[in-house]
Amino acid sequence: MITFDTIREAHDRVRPHIHHTAVLTNHTINDRVGAELFFKCENFQKIGAFKARGGLNAVLQVAERNEGNAVTTHSSGNHAQAVAFAARQVGLPAYIVMPRTAPAVKKAAVLGYGAEVIECEPTLEAREAGVQAVIERTGAVLVHPFDDDRVIAGQATAAKELIADFGADKPFDTILAPVGGGGLLSGTALTTYYLSPSTRVIAGEPEGAADAVLSFQSGRVEKAPYIKTIADGLMTSLSERTLAIIRQHVSEILTVSDDEIAAAMRLVWERMKIIIEPSSAVPLAVVLKHTDQFAGQKIGIIITGGNVDLGKLPF
């Protein structure tokens, strides 16, 4: 059970190690969508993504409670960097299982934090098998990318800052976040429920990794019909844990195509002059696709990260 006290304690725990990231607005984008958008810029976060929050909250507790002498996880990139960074902060070895197709920039960053990278095939089964082998070999503690209350509570602190900074006087009508495994979305939904219960939470998901929308409808964890998207951070399926939170506290999940994601990403690069990765552009792509639904609203958007491979831009 993740209470507001859990989230507040997580924020107190990670605050010395993270940035209180900026919230930006843009008149051109506001005019285009007919709404007032506030972008929580976790692309400016340590390791370049919101994942630093959850990784730190979990790894700091592993160290505080002497739960093990090393940590491990599987990730395509940003959570890998988060665990490697957090492990370096507390002096623990980190063993990171990454699919061989993960962006080279993210693998390099993990190595740069001093972690060991174990490559695997780009399937969930291969990732989980790789982690299990690490645990058997080293005794490392698993810090799951999203199926972990400590990780979810850490991710929840981004929305906590957004609401405190810009939603106190006039609540947001809607807060949007992308959904992959559901850790950020779960945390965002819980924070919003506790701090701003009148605000709707909506998720954006790529059409090329559309499992969460199916799971949301059926009530059980579903697999995507196919996996093909430029949003490499959103290819993972939900867990039972994240699905339960999302079905209780999220209003809707809307999907967008890769072309729509690329157009939203380019719009942010051109108009806001900041680097964001494709996964980060998914919520804005949702707003651009459904302008009638969001017209006139005050909207918060979590920009999840900026770890893009500059040699493989989709535009």
Instruction: Look up the CATH topology of the largest domain.
Output: Rossmann fold
Overall mean confidence score, pLDDT: 96
Instruction: Indicate the proportion of strand residues.
Output: 15-25%
Low-confidence stretches: none
Q: Would you tell me the structural class of the helices and strands?
A: alpha/beta
Radius of gyration: 18 Å
Query: In sequence order, what are the helices and strands, one letter per element?
Result: HEHEHEHEHEHEHEHEHHEHHHE
Query: What is the highest CATH level, the class of the largest domain?
Result: Alpha Beta
Number of helices: 13
- Broad shape: globular
Lateral strand order in the biggest sheet: 1-2-10-7-8-9
Looking at the overall shape, the CATH architecture of the largest domain is: 3-Layer(aba) Sandwich
Describe this structure in words.
This protein has 315 residues and is of the alpha/beta class. The protein folds into two domains: 210 residues, Rossmann fold, CATH 3.40.50.1100; 92 residues, 3-Layer(aba) Sandwich (Rossmann fold). Helix content is 47%, strand content 15%. It contains 13 helices and ten strands. Helix 8 links the parallel strand 7 and strand 8. Helix 1 crosses helix 3.
Helix/strand layout:
Layout: H1 4-14, E1 23-24, H2 27-33, E2 36-41, H3 51-64, E3 71-74, H4 78-90, E4 94-99, H5 104-112, E5 116-120, H6 124-138, E6 141-142, H7 149-166, E7 174-178, H8 183-195, E8 200-206, H9 212-218, H10 240-249, E9 252-256, H11 258-272, H12 278-289, H13 291-294, E10 298-303
Parallel strand pairs: 2-10, 3-4, 3-6, 4-5, 7-8, 7-10, 8-9
Antiparallel strand pairs: 1-2
Helix pairs in contact: 1-3, 1-7, 3-4, 3-7, 4-5, 7-8, 8-10, 11-12
Protein name: Threonine/serine dehydratase
Family: Belongs to the ACC deaminase/D-cysteine desulfhydrase family.
Cofactor: pyridoxal 5'-phosphate
